[in-house]
Amino acid sequence: MVRGTIGRYLARPWFDALALRLGVNYLFPLSRILHTAIACEGDSRALVDRLQLRQGLPDSCDDALTEVSIRHYVAKSAFERWKVVMFGDNLSIAGRIFSELRRQETAQRLLESALLFRDLRRQVAPISWDLPTPRDFQEKYADFLQEPEKAFAPPTTMPRMMMSHSIHGVYGREYWLRYPSSLGGGENWVRCYEPLTGLEPDAPTFIFLQGLGVEQDCFQDREDPICALTEAGFRVLRVQQPEHAFRKTAGWFAGERTLARGPIGLVEFFRQWISDLSVLIDWVRWQRGGPVILGGVSMGALTAQLLSTVAWNWPDRMKPDALLLIATSGDVMGVLKKSCLTGALGVPNQLHELGWREEDYIRCLPFVQPSGHSVVPPHKVIMMLGQSDDLTPYKGGLALADRWRVPPENRFLRKGKGHFSLLIDLIRDPIVLRRLVDVAQAD
């Protein structure tokens, strides 16, 4: 559908404005209500207290709470059974496929139940804010202010990696990895795809990082040009973000804790994910000898580019060989202060009221923004940017491409595309992925 006529009309600037409005005014408050309701376990009084509702619950919410409790129990049971089947019981492939499909179906039904609270949406703020003061930031990172790169040091001891049984899917052989996160946040989860015919000894591995709020593993599988790279002989590893999908803190929706804590939430997100990725890259090196490509979209791209600039003192085996950055920006503080999303949520004004000034933002820069050059050589960095993107502003992405001397053939600059329409364009015409294949095969 996206590849056809509908996709051609969606991949235009009007879609970006609509997507932003739907996210801030509908998706965020409804998701917040849902995850608070799950944490309240059907207790309507607790829900009123946690959401600080002034008008109480509409009558329609009584049935909604009951339905959510049922769907949550079913989804949790399916997930626990899935873990046993995939990481324990040696069932047939058919049994594993059924368990995987059941997990996806029940997780999707649970998230869709947010629509049951539509009568409550207008009473609820999109985010449960917990923004810090400049002093909070200084106290939390006092040990790293002089040497920020130490905040991103990889673990000295690699955790034990658990590999699941495999199934046969649309894009080839599928399996999962799970391992402890060295900075907290429970377990890290990675969904893996390989060609059914097997991997060549020098096959490239593409580690893909999704954007903030995206929980692809909690929905039934759909067309995915990233996973389709298995057709070119790639191993594709799709990594779950901190505070998303299986890693969410109870009572918070995907990405909410990162947004709610402002600069501290952003730094903690980067620190945790970069630490997790260093472990994953190290594991990949021990498995195969081919190039390791790190790439992502939006927040995933911001994480990938930051990792590539803090990894200079890491062991060589933990450094990526190539980068794919989609909808990124080199001005990460600008994303926090001036993007259309943070502006719509009122983040800059709230931080200003808490005492944040220019010198305080400058103190944050080394923890969130790529400084210096990447460990990846310029000819192996690929960028795809929307020239109308005002969420991760285009000028910041172009400035980063210039600073890193990314060659013209690796720059895919889409005229008239905003943040969300750019992603539609990626599905409709994955030319940037064909360039990725060429760069990987050049090794």
Automatic annotation (TrEMBL):
Q: What's the name of the protein?
A: AB hydrolase-1 domain-containing protein
